Amino acid sequence: MPDSPTDPKRAEQQLGGETHMPLSRITVLDLTLARAGPTAVRHLADWGAKVIRIEPPDTGGEEISGARHGFDFQNLHRNKRAIRLNLKSPEGHAAFMRLVEKADVIVENMRAAVKHRLHVAWEDVQKVNPRIVYGSISGFGQTGPYGPRAGVDQIAQGMGGLMSITGLPGQGPVRVGIPIADLTAGNLLALGIMTALFDREVTGVGRWVQTSLLESQVFMLDFQATRWLMAKEVAPQAGNDHPTGIPTGVFPTSDGHINIAASSARLWERLCDTIGKPEWKQNEKWKTQKGRGADRKEINAAIGEVTKHKPAAHWIELFEGAGIPCGPIYTIDQVFADPQVKHLGMARPVKHPKLGDIELVSSAINISGYSRDVRTPTPEADADTADVLRSVGYSDAEIADMRAKGAI
After folding, report:
1. d(CA 97, CA 319)
2. DSSP-assigned beta bridge partners for residue 82
3. Backbone angles phi, psi at 246, to 5 degrees
4. Side-chain-facing half-sphere of 142: CA atoms under 13 Å
5. Contact residues for 107 (Cβ-Cβ < 8 A; gap 6+)
6. In the chain, N or C: fewer CB atoms in 10 Å?
7. Which residues touch 94 (CB under 8 Å, ≥6 apart)?
8. What is the 3-state secondary structure (H, E, C) of the chain?
9. Bridge-partner residues for 27, per DSSP?
């Protein structure tokens, strides 16, 4: 449950004029683009890290994640500061290295050749700051036969096996409706960065933390991957049915569809009683998961013949009362209208200087005593350039000179 601003146990405090958050003492240099890298940095920014997003002098107002004032870009880059810095220029590169000296973390998702060409790779920055934690996301890994390749989410979904098990049987490959490889890689990199920071407290040295879209996608196959590794079973498409737990899937109602999950022996018996079919419990074949799996189509059709005569709300109330997991199937607007989603505070308001009052997607992590509020909206590209450079010793005259030379 989201913390109340008046919660006496709330841990946020005013320290030196700034609000303390769990990562307030961490400074992050954000070199990321697109989605996977920004997802990792967003975790750090949301929990108070001092994130400096570094952008080239002119992006033309357009990013891979859309226009700067668009919904995607705004959701990815909140709670950060932003500067423009030309890493290709000697002055811009020197300024970056001066920032590196005082930073704790760098996050990037460039192709290997690009970061080496810009001289901002792990080897370059570790010489300047041995305590730096350097986080990298690539398409396929930093080394190996595919190391030099660029990678995007859908390519990883295909190569990572996900598209082969998504969709209806016989439908052919289907992508998942969200960029799951990007998001997972970002989530895992954030976890890896925090692990390296924790290790640094003991060792005093930084680490290079890496993951890739391909590794993340294979990791997310989870039991479907182990199904192959241990049992040599290649998972097929199963549509809306759970691949191994039957019955678990989508069933018709008089006004739409619902999800029902009753795969264990205990839940199966409860389901039979709840929908008025106790005789199904006497079917010897249906008493085991293996037997129900073999008769998946017949069981699903039989359940559907019952559920289709009553509305979803009727069945959800009935199944909930019997302790059978079930739920509605929402469109996204219905998700945010749901009372539980509202209670969890998954839409967070923030006032943007140009867009006005907007809402963004909340962090899904809850830490007692801390708020998940969006503290600041996504900044304009050059909003903090001068202030950040002053913080590492640049004079106003030097900043003006760098601007004249195109370094910022």
Report:
1. 60
2. 53
3. -120, 135
4. 13
5. 28, 29, 30, 31, 32, 37, 40, 41, 44, 135, 136, 189, 193
6. N
7. none
8. CCCCCCCCCCCCCEECCEECCCCCCCEEEECCCCCHHHHHHHHHHHCCCEEEEEECCCCCCEECCEECCCHHHHHHCCCCEEEECCCCCHHHHHHHHHHHHHCCEEEECCCHHHHHHCCCCHHHHHHHCCCCEEEEEECCCCCCCCCCCCCCHHHHHHHCCHHHHCCCCCCCCCCCCCCHHHHHHHHHHHHHHHHHHHHHHHHCCCCEEEEEHHHHHHHHHCHHHHHHHHHCCCCCCCCCCCCCCCCEEEEEECCEEEEEECCCHHHHHHHHHHCCCHHHHHCHHHHCHHHHHHCHHHHHHHHHHHHCCCCHHHHHHHHHHCCCCEEECCCHHHHHHCHHHHHHCCEEEEEECCCEEEEEECCCCCCCCCCCCCCCCCCCCCCCHHHHHHHCCCCHHHHHHHHHCCCC
9. 50
Cα 385 versus chain centre, distance:
28
| pLDDT one-digit tens code per residue, 241-256 | 999 899 999 999 999 9
Cβ-based burial of 306 (10 A; exposed 0-12, middle 13-18, buried ≥19):
middle
What average pLDDT score do residues 121-137 get?
98
Residue appearing with tokens 């016989």: 170
Q: How far is CA 243 from the centre of its chain?
A: 24
**C-beta of residue 280 within 8 angstroms of C-beta of residue 302:** yes
Domains and their CATH numbers in the chain: 14-221+366-404 (3.40.50.10540), 248-336 (3.30.1540.10)
Res. 18: pLDDT tops 70: no
pLDDT tens-digit readout, 251-280: 999 999 999 999 999 999 999 999 999 999
State how far the Cα of 393 lies from the Cα of 202, in Å rounded to an integer: 30
Q: Which residue has the tokens 């700034």?
A: 18
Euclidean distance between CA atoms 206 and 211, whole angstroms: 16
For the whole model, what pTM was predicted?
A: 0.93
- Rounded Cα distance between 174 and 211, Å, is 24
Mean pLDDT of 306-313: 98
On whether the CB atoms of residues 153 and 142 are closer than 8 A, the answer is no
